[in-house]
From TrEMBL:
GO terms for biological process: negative regulation of DNA-templated transcription; regulation of secondary metabolite biosynthetic process. Zn(2+) binds at C94, C97, C134, C137. Belongs to the Fur family. This is Fe2+/Zn2+ uptake regulation protein. It is found in: Cytoplasm.
């Protein structure tokens, strides 16, 4: 079964009508990564032609509400979306370029981390974001392009 056929079935299983914009957005999300609305809108336009950014926002809202997509909001960064929703994973974010990578839970199932005091809450999931510098941004050439002094030994 093709990715498009699988996504048609995902939409139907979630009780959603299959429309070209929904199918195009979900298909882009299932390619992986953590795209922004703007990058999704560009990809959907490449598939379908004229589609408004508002239409992409609307589709994403429906996909998130139905559990077919997840939104992450790294501090200081645009909202990003992903189709990986069936688990409680975490994220690494590069401070240099904004690259986002998934990190599996190290201790099992959701919430996979438990605070010292739950204050009476029933825990459902944990959302952890690690911040750092990816290998591309940490390279000497990238550091010099950003004006970061080189350490010479």
């Amino acid at each position: 079964m093709s990715r498009i056929d699988e996504n048609r079935e995902r939409l139907r299983s979630a009780g959603l009508r299959v429309t070209n914009p929904r199918l195009a957005v979900l298909t882009e999300l299932t390619r992986g990564g953590h795209p922004t609305v703007d990058s999704l809108a560009d990809a959907v336009r490449a598939r379908l032609g004229a589609v408004s950014t508002q239409a992409v926002y609307d589709v994403l809202g429906v996909l998130v509400e139905s559990g077919l997509a997840r939104v992450i909001e790294p501090a200081g960064s645009a909202r990003r979306y992903e189709a990986r929703v069936a688990d409680n994973h975490h994220h690494l974010v590069c401070r240099g370029c904004g690259q986002v990578e998934d990190v599996d839970c190290a201790t099992g199932e959701a919430p996979c981390l438990v605070p010292a005091d739950t204050y009476g809450f029933t825990l459902e999931e944990a959302e952890v974001t690690w911040w750092g510098t990816c290998s591309a941004c940490a390279s000497p050439s990238a550091r010099s392009q950003r004006g970061v002094p080189q350490i010479v030994e």
